[in-house]
Amino acid sequence: MTSNSSDSDRSSAESAMSASTFIEVSADDFKRYNTALLRLLLTLYECGGSLATVKLFETADMSTAYGGKIVTKAAKLGYIKRDRVPKPKGEPGNDMVINTLTTRGTKLLERLNLT
Question: Is residue 85 within 8 Å of residue 96, measured between CB atoms?
Fold first, then answer.
């Protein structure tokens, strides 16, 4: 009987940890601690809203290792949407991933007066 109660306690604790928590921060603090994220979002905005991942990293002058973490963070936060697009037959390489700036990402840039 104790194992069932500990399982339910564990699942409720996990769901509480997975819930989003919002903390108010000033715009200056957000800019200071998220410069790489904002640089990627601005690059997408300036390039028309959509770019392939490799082209995004080249344009933002960012490494693929670090940029990959930032793109994943931006997608998780809902600032960009990532769509896998198959390459045409005969072209070498893997499918492309197109990164598109969402309305939430655009609103963030506008709120921070970056556009």
Answer: yes
Read off the pTM.
0.73
Rounded Cα distance between 105 and 113, Å, is: 12
* Averages of pLDDT over each 10 residues, the chain, 115 residues: 48 48 81 91 93 92 91 94 89 89 93 87
Q: What is the DSSP letter of 24?
A: -
- For residue 114 the two structure tokens come to 């970056």
The C-alpha angle with vertex 38 and arms to 28 and 110, in degrees rounded to 5, equals 70
Domains and CATH numbers, the chain: 25-111 (1.10.10.10)
* Cβ proximity of 14 and 95 under 8 Å: no
Kindly calculate the radius of gyration of the chain based on its CA atoms and give it in whole angstroms: 19
- For residues 59 and 51, the answer to whether their CB atoms sit within 8 Å is yes
Nearest to 85, CA basis, from 51, 47, 37 = 51
For 113: left if phi > 0, alpha if psi spans -120 to 50, otherwise beta; the answer is: left
